[in-house]
Structures are given as structure tokens and as C-alpha cells.
Design a protein that fits this description.
- It contains 6 helices and 9 strands.
- The longest helix is centred in the middle third of the chain and has 11 residues.
- It is an alpha+beta fold.
- The protein starts with a helix and ends in a 6-residue tail after the last strand.
- It is 29% helix and 24% strand.
Length: 178
């Protein structure tokens, strides 16, 4: 029997991930083992147009795998897992569109922003160009974040705070909301 607890404590990750730049996060469960486990289920390789609810997602390997296959995924767990929130967000506008679709009233978006002023713009970080961080692919300026929120479908977008390189934005579904 494997020493799951010891392996989890050593890495801090339950699932393993291969990042887009080829680096791997080694968790207690190997990518190969996770792929074998997923292959047991009668789940099609193409899930375009399908919806998946991943209950007990933990750090999200199955959620991301189903999304990779084309499904619209909602992942839930009884704990707020920091690792799940730190995995790459490859398509920020698409993510905001999905958040908007699930939001009835208010979504609060807190994100990294660059110090660049002017029209909406973003920088792309392929690997570790952002001070060694590997969990940010893009650095939008504040104007870009506000535009993304509007383009995602939020009718009323209000800047709450800008602090160093972070911004917080209140995004409302209805025009009449605060």
C-alpha cells in the first residue's frame, strides 16, 4: 500500500499536474495514475456541449481534465483548497463569462494587474517571466480587467480597490445594482 499521507505532506498536492510549459507539479497521485483512473469511467474524450459537476474536486485534476475535453465544469468541495485556486487560468475572459453565467447578483473579482495606464492591454507570461511565478499567464492592466468584466456580461462594473499589483472589482449582473 502506498504512503498517500506522507506523499501528500511532502508535496502539498493530492493530484499531479503538467503545466503548459512542460513543468510538472508532483502530487501524491501521479498523472499516469490519474489518467488510468479516469480511463475506467465511460467518459467520452470529446465532451463539447456537456456539463460536468465535480464533487469533491480537491485540487482539481479531474475538473481540469473534463474541461480539457471540452465540458463546462463546476467544481465543488467542502474545503477551500488554495492549490485549486493557484492552477493556471489559461482563458481569463472565458472564465469570467462562465462566472457571469453562474452569478445571480454580484461577483467580486480580485486579480493581479500591471501598472500600465492607458487603453486595455495585457502582458503574456509563457513561463516564469513574472518574477518566477508560474501561476499567472497574463498580466492585464486595470482598464483591461474592467473591460473583461463588461465583455463577460456583467452590466455594472465598479472598481473597489487597487493596491500595489492587485485590483478588486465588484461585478453586478443588473444595471440598477450598486
Amino acid at each position: 500500500m502506498r504512503a498517500w499521507g506522507r506523499e501528500f505532506q511532502a508535496s502539498g498536492w493530492w493530484h499531479s499536474f503538467e503545466l503548459p510549459d512542460g513543468r510538472r507539479i508532483e502530487g501524491a497521485n501521479s498523472i499516469e495514475g490519474l489518467e488510468r483512473r479516469a480511463a475506467v469511467f465511460p467518459i467520452a474524450p470529446d465532451l463539447a456541449g456537456k456539463r460536468v459537476l465535480d464533487i469533491g474536486a480537491w485540487d482539481g485534476w479531474f475538473s481540469f481534465e473534463m474541461e480539457r475535453r471540452g465540458a463546462e465544469v463546476v467544481a465543488v468541495d467542502c474545503v477551500d483548497n488554495r492549490n485549486f485556486r493557484e492552477i493556471h487560468l489559461k482563458h481569463p475572459l472565458l472564465a469570467l463569462e462562465r462566472i457571469c453565467a453562474l452569478t445571480r447578483d454580484l461577483a467580486v473579482v480580485q486579480t493581479f494587474v500591471t501598472a500600465d495606464a492607458g487603453p486595455p492591454a495585457m502582458q503574456f507570461y509563457e513561463t516564469h517571466e513574472l518574477g518566477g511565478q508560474f501561476d499567472n499567464w497574463v498580466g492585464p492592466n486595470l482598464a483591461c480587467v474592467l473591460a473583461w468584466c463588461r465583455m463577460a456580461g456583467f452590466r455594472n462594473v465598479n472598481l473597489l480597490n487597487v493596491d500595489d499589483h492587485d485590483a478588486a472589482v465588484a461585478c453586478y449582473r443588473a444595471v440598477g445594482q450598486p
